[in-house]
Amino acid sequence: MTAPTTLRVGVIGTGMIGRDHIRRMTTVLSGLAVVAVADVDPTVAERVAAEAGAVAFPDGLDLIAADSVDAVLVCSWGGTHERYVLAAIAAGKPVFCEKPLATTEKACLRIMAAEVAHGSRLVQVGYMRRYDAAYLAMKQTLESGAIGAPLMMHCAHRNAGVPAFYEPENTITDTAVHEIDMVRWMFGSEIAAVRVLRPRASRNAGDLPDPMLIVLELANGVLVDVEISVNVRYGYDIRGEILGEDGTVSLGDPGLISVRRAGRVATPVPADWRDRFGSTYDVELRAWADSVLGGGVSGGPGTWDGYAAAVVSDAAVRALRTGERIEVTLAERPGLY
Ligand code: NAP
Q: Which GO molecular function terms does the record list (predicted)?
């Protein structure tokens, strides 16, 4: 039997990122067909389905069960991810789950147990920085040995602003979690302990702990500091610099152009994460679809990575609340990962 050349995808959750992924799969990428859509709001699901030429399902679980769906994209609110990912595993269907994999450590462990029982990888988690050209070039430089063994990394994650629903812990679970996954991948090492330090608050902070400095101690001895600032107003600014024994490697300026006039050089700052990482999501979904069409989910961030990010996020939230250094304890890593 020859492998299918078109992946028939069902999308659960048609909010901001769900609709963006549908646009990506229908207008940017080839070899993908959005055949089914579900949302907690059936009117929205009907409208989005009509625009995409797909069928609207009243519930995500029905969508997962449908014969017309080969693979599932979970883009609903984080608290619903476990339910849909478990159902996809039970149906033996590949599932791309937007981050977080699930909102609690226990839920992540339940997903891991189900996937291990299934016996092969079905789950990819939407930690897209692993597909970003700048981070990939940085990792390649590090692994080439050009800057020697890594010692430290300095990161900044600055948002112009954040949604009204943000509570203090969202600065970690929704914002810093991208750096948490990125450094595990960059250095090939788990995070062993976390601290959170806070300077005086920004006058733009509202009730949020803004800014803050997260210190991640990696098991391999590398130390990472991550500045989180979620109300900088001037744009979306993602920075990173690794200090090695013989040199450094930094993320370049994301501005595609620079303008010189009136005695100044000006480079545009991205407005938000879509502006900065738009093409990265294209590469991410392309890689996912290719691996599924090739016979299995491989390579990308999986259940173990979603689990580890959740445990480190929990530890960082505790560090934020208590001001203490919190050690990270992970379960035994199953052979599947
Ligand atoms: P959003 O705009 O609020 O969209 C979530 C959508 O899911 C909404 O349409 C929501 O409906 C729907 N929904 C909620 N419960 C559902 C259920 N039980 N079944 C089906 N649909 C349900 O949020 P978003 O920004 O798109 O984020 C969605 C997910 O993607 C989150 O987990 C977020 O962390 C992740 N995300 C990842 C990135 C990234 O960089 N990788 C970027 C953005 C978002 P209502 O609006 O009616 O609640």
A: inositol 2-dehydrogenase (NAD+) activity; nucleotide binding
